[in-house]
Amino acid sequence: MKSDIKRAIGHMLETNLVRKVFWHMDDKVDNLLYGIRQGDDAAVIGEWAVNMEGPYPLKIGRKTGLIHTCSDIVVMGAKPLFALNSMQVDSIKDSESIANDIKKQSNGLGVPIVGGNTQLENDLKPCISFVVFGKMLGKPIPDSGAKHGDRILMLGDVVEGEIGERVYRAKVKFETFFDLIENNIEIHASKDASRGGWFGNLTEMLIKSKKGFTIGSIPFPRITRYMGTYLLAVPRKEVKRIVEISAKHKCPVVDMGKVEKELRISIGDEVVVDEKKMHELIRGFPYRKARRL
Q: Which of 8, 90, 117, 125 could be cross-linked to 200 through a Cys-Cys bond (beta carbons 3.0 to 4.6 Å apart)?
């Protein structure tokens, strides 16, 4: 478990140097609400949410790349509307097969591919990237707003299987999340449990929120695995309604535990990230709270 925790935190820190290089770019964009300094799931400019993912190895991207890119748009509180993709392939014949798989994701999610780029350069590994544009449904939901006493819930099923199964599981999660927003459920923070696994993404939420957490349940034993589920920090009073709405959509939801004032992460009574380490992570993490809307 200790080695997995170290690996999950390592994944979380991998892009810190790059973010520091681009830190002042946020000042150059009018109406930017969430950008490099927030490092959230998507950038938010005015009423638009934009996210780019990849490059994925073709084997992965053709099955789930668009799904995952849309997922980060939804978790910010926006509806994905259209997308672009760029792929490096070995042959035109390959590109047709890959495009058909992307089309399955696109049609299943209702997010059309409206442009992009296909290239065949020598000595490049085949890969694919996606950009998705979405419209905000209300105020953005950050990954940094967890409050003392909040429960953190994991929403959705692991996104795995063939393309149709992945699309179905993602759509159930999306529709459930949209329903939470439409029912004015109070959500203090939300994050896609993806790169670095659920533990790494949970730790990032806590670092940005400057809070600790007591883990009361383990939703999936491999803490570093990509899951495609959502982590929601919500007031305890909202848990019952969230369970009711999730049940209506047949969407799994797990209560993982409680947000604490004390800067440490515990599994039961065992402290797995102590106060000293949490302070170190907070000091070294490039983050600035978004301006008030």
A: 8
